[in-house]
Amino acid sequence: MPRRWSKQRFDLVEVIAIAAFSTLFVWKVGTFSLPPEAAPLRKVYGPWHYTRGVEEWVIRDYFKDQRAGFFVDIGANHYKDENNTFYLEQQLGWSGIAVDPLREFEADYGKYRPRTKFFALFVSDVSDERAALYVAQSNTKVSSASREQTEDEAGQRASVTMVPTITLTDLLEGQGVSRVDLLSIDIELAEPKALAGFDVAKFKPRLVCIEAWLPVRQQILDYFARHRYVVIGRYLRADPINLYFAPFPDN
Known about the structure:
Blueprint lengths: L2 H27 L9 H7 L9 H9 L6 E5 L11 H7 L2 E5 L6 H7 L3 E4 L2 E2 L6 E7 L6 E2 L2 H8 L3 E9 L1 H7 L7 E4 L5 H6 L3 H4 L3 E5 L2 H13 L2 E3 L10 E6 L4
Parallel strand pairs: 1-2, 1-8, 2-3, 4-7, 8-9
Antiparallel strand pairs: 5-6, 5-7, 9-11, 10-11
Helix pairs in contact: 2-3
């Protein structure tokens, strides 16, 4: 193993420890309030943002407000509210693909997001099957493949609907995608299955923003380590919910 990669692995262990502690704290207290470490991002890119947390600021910071990029947004949900790519399209001229299994979001993407192709699909490790999706009964913005996860987050009972699946690789190949600047994944503990159906070496996203709660965090870290992606350490304390990955420099 080359020394440079060994050193990177050592650094990765350190940042993983920081991330695990931060996420454990947020998981226990159940708060999404912005940590003090987000203040520099807020100063440059704030004070408002469309995302739930600091995702928009981090993404803008990483790309330095680059124009005309290409995104893939998995678990896109509402076209604007708590959306990781709305600002990119509206203010920076980005285009891309948005995926969410709930078809009710499709009309607004068509109306308000002309640069975005919306697909009502469930991204998983297999294509052309059906998966159970649990949706909060009076708040369809909350849904997941886990009844417990949906009901815990929404504080109410969930109903189940069956939705078609697709792998991310099949979707991107079918759309003729050859490059990805930003890959955003927020699918409530189903992230490992989505990654299992994704050929990251082929599409090489420049930045991955992925929700990484404790039950699936280690699987996510292992996946990206295998494919020589590294955690971007400077965002760990600013965003204890998501992890941000970039290709190792010699990829």
